[in-house]
Design goal:
Elements lengths: L13 E3 L6 E6 L8 E7 L4 E4 L5 E8 L2 E5 L5 E4 L4 E4 L5 E5 L3 E8 L26 E4 L3 E2 L10 H14 L5 E6 L4 E6 L1 H9 L1 H6 L3 E7 L3 H15 L4 H13 L4 H8 L3 H11 L30 H20 L4
Parallel strand pairs: 12-14, 13-15
Antiparallel strand pairs: 1-2, 2-3, 3-10, 4-9, 5-8, 5-10, 6-7, 6-9, 11-15, 13-14
Length: 331
Amino acid sequence: MRIIKTNELDSSRVIECPKGGFVSNRILLAKDGMGYTMTKTVIPPNGKQFWHYKNHLESCYCVSGHGEITNIASGESHQINPDTTYVLDHNEPHYFEAFEEVTLICVFNPPLTGDEVHQPDGTYEADWLSPVYHVRPVPIDKIQANDYNPNAVAPPEMALLETSIMEDGYTQPVVTVYDPETDMYIVVDGFHRFLILKNSPEILAREGGMLPCVVLKKDISDRMASTIRHNRARGSHNIELMSSIVAELVEMGKGDRWICKHIGMSADEVLRMKQITGLASLFANKDFSDSWEAESDEVDEDISSLDEMGRDTIQHVGKCEQQKRSAGVGH
């Protein structure tokens, strides 16, 4: 047990905002080993302060004073008075204005290292930390399956997974991304763990309707790549669904080099995925021998190593596609 008195903190833990916006007494830091930071922050009446914690989640409890917080994204404003807590659970950019001196007790996750001050964009810098250190419980009705997962689990393995979760609990979080447009968490990896909680009344009740999740910051193409990387690392994925994803990535403008690098495929595998879909448009206007040069640090197999059958297939499909366009035939 430790007893910490704020007025006895080392001077290195008392950080003053260069613009006079606050004084932060950093009671707990990363090196204290609690997994979060707690501060006593005093904000003088000095106009609106812009803050945006892109790298941290923050909750603040008002001890004294009167101020106002404004969510920049929504335009909503809320009065902050003693015994009021505001929670920035989606890294919202915001203004805070103290009408009189405000004292807040603030909690940050991940923890601060100690000497952070606000950057011009309102953020605190953060060292890289793997997502697994930020597991959070998310209500099951706020989680949505993705529509591109190429992994499948047979019924016996699903039954074993349910038994494992029933006996041992959840030992791995589900990997998600947060979609602010729908206010939903989209599954990147762990769909079957999500499904067990959703469909098992006993496990659902025991877990209080909450699923342990980590949240990545990814756009749609990177989400797909993350899903495939997780599946391929376990050696389990559905070839037809994988080929459909490759087709979708190509339609989104991702080239062979990007797909090889981010999904961990060889050039030959990318070719086979394209062939499986049967979509001639994936090869349109491609001279395969000249289309791109594979670099040793990006692609395991040089594109020139493909056999003559692969070359002939692409040339033939490309010609067919050009003939279709010339004849006005769509697909």
